[in-house]
Amino acid sequence: MGLSEVVAALEHAEQLLEDGETGPAQDSLSWQRASDDADIQLGKACAMLGTCRQLRQGTNNYVSIVELSFNAIERSFQFYLVEMTVAESADYRKHEEVFDDIAVRNIFSDEEVASRIDAFRSEHRSRFYYHIDRPGRDFAMAMHDLAEEIHQYLVEFADAHSRRNCDKRE
């Protein structure tokens, strides 16, 4: 494989978009058509958790499960903030801003969950992402479980069950 194959692949992808011929869209990605900012964040979190569930079945791609779990937690937090406050997704340019805003709102009572997750994320996420640390199976499963619990908690807190489009846990 050389540069000509890279250029050909790039041209093919560009042409598909230009022609509007991207193929059938996934039904499960209905959130992409949402016009509500909160529903877009909720849909992203649901999609990431669904992908984690699929990865748990038969792969050992623990880095991807951990990364998607961190992303699903952040998207779930962002959903809650956009849904329950006057915030907009565009208000959050940095990861820390979402976690800081959740911590200030004391959504998890006095358990300091948001600040603990933020500290945990700050310390470990980039180490896993850049392969400085290698997550094992048990840790990846624990991160996915944590992301599912947070997502469910915030959906219940916002009374948004009917708008949630991810499958129930298996």
Helix content: 55-70%
Low-confidence stretches: none
Task: Using the alpha-carbon principal axes, give the shape.
Answer: globular
- Judged by helices, strands and strand pairing, the structural class is mainly alpha
Rg estimate, integer Å: 18 Å
Biggest beta-sheet profile? none
How many separate structural domains? 1
Number of discrete helical segments: 6
Query: What would CATH call the class?
Result: Mainly Alpha
Mean of the pLDDT scores? 85
Protein name: DUF8154 domain-containing protein
Organism: Natronomonas salsuginis
Domain DUF8154: 2-166
Descriptive tags:
globular; 0% strand; single chain; 170 residues; Four Helix Bundle (Hemerythrin (Met), subunit A); mainly alpha
Please outline what is shown here:
This protein is 64% helix and 0% strand.
How would you characterize the overall build of this protein?
The protein has 170 residues and is an all-alpha fold. It is 64% helix and 0% strand. The chain has 6 helices and no strands. It has helices at 3-19, 37-56, 62-84, 95-104, 113-129, 137-157. The radius of gyration is 18 Å and the shape is globular. The N and C termini lie far apart (41 Å). It comes from Natronomonas salsuginis. InterPro entries: DUF8154.
